[in-house]
Write a structure and sequence with these properties.
The chain has about 350 residues and is mainly alpha-helical. The protein is about 50% helix and about 5% strand. The termini are far apart.
Length: about 350
Amino acid sequence: MAQRSDQVMVSSPEGPQIRVPSVWIPRICLHSIVLTGLLLPSIYESFLSTLWTALSGSSLYRFSGFETLETVLCYIIIEPFYTYKFGRNPNLRIDVRGSKWKGSGSERPKIPKMRRPSKRMGEMFIYIAPLLAMDLTMIKKFAGVPVADIRRSGGYPLPLANASAGDISSSFLLPTIHNFTLESPLQLTRALPTEVPSSRRLLLELIISFFIYDALFFFIHIAFHRIKFLAKIHMPHHTHTEMHPQVTNKLSVAERLSLVLLANFALNIIGSHVLTRSAFVPVFVYLLVEVHSGLDSEWSYDKLIPFGWGAGSRVHAVHHRTGDGAFAPFFTWWDRGLEWMDLRREIKSQ
């Protein structure tokens, strides 16, 4: 039978040839969306206007804990999908390749010990509790929102005419506790901007925020490996027999909070629109699960991004095995810079 033009054949010493879908189709689709969104934002103007009108008028979307709920929802959809794929596709499992299993015969390699969803409710509570506590006690501050709206959402009275905003700053760098009263016992709503963002703004903010997050986490991750007391906190994340999707959330409370706070900082420091934040969450969760999946997936993001900029699951699996290198979670340029500096240091010392 003739080979389909949208597929390629891959062979390896570990097993027989595997038919792998070509990455060119999703790559062209992804690049087309990004380029048209950046260069021709008018194409998406009507869609974004309708979307933002619907979202900003929704009481659920205005709930202060919406982003926490969105993150959890994305995780409980994406991670089980990868877990199912992990169990069904031993030929894609990175740590299995090169082992005694050769990909032939009917016997599958053993699946590492993983917990059923019903056994992970405590894990979910531990993740949600500190985030919801912050959501319900601290005022949300977003770019493009007037201080008066921020005050109102936080239960503070509006200042008198021609008076300053008082003790409320619109800067996210100056956190403000909710004004707890009988009328407003918790921070239940968040004030949203009225401006509809363009596709160009959304894409640029997404790209820049992931660039900033990747850089910040690179340095934090190095600290978690090279500072002794932090290394003890981080060590459980590396204690597994084989890399698999559930390793994604095998983190201490401190590490989970660092992920969320760094992501928030990366978004807030550039004044991201709230809709950018909503788009950031599913992409962020997908990338976290993808790099920890232990799978060399056919259309993984590192195969769609050009010039080898994407780190991906294969690179991160090496990091988990060795405990060194590949400190940046999503991209490769920071680690390439670190390797270059280490090489120069070795050359000078000779």
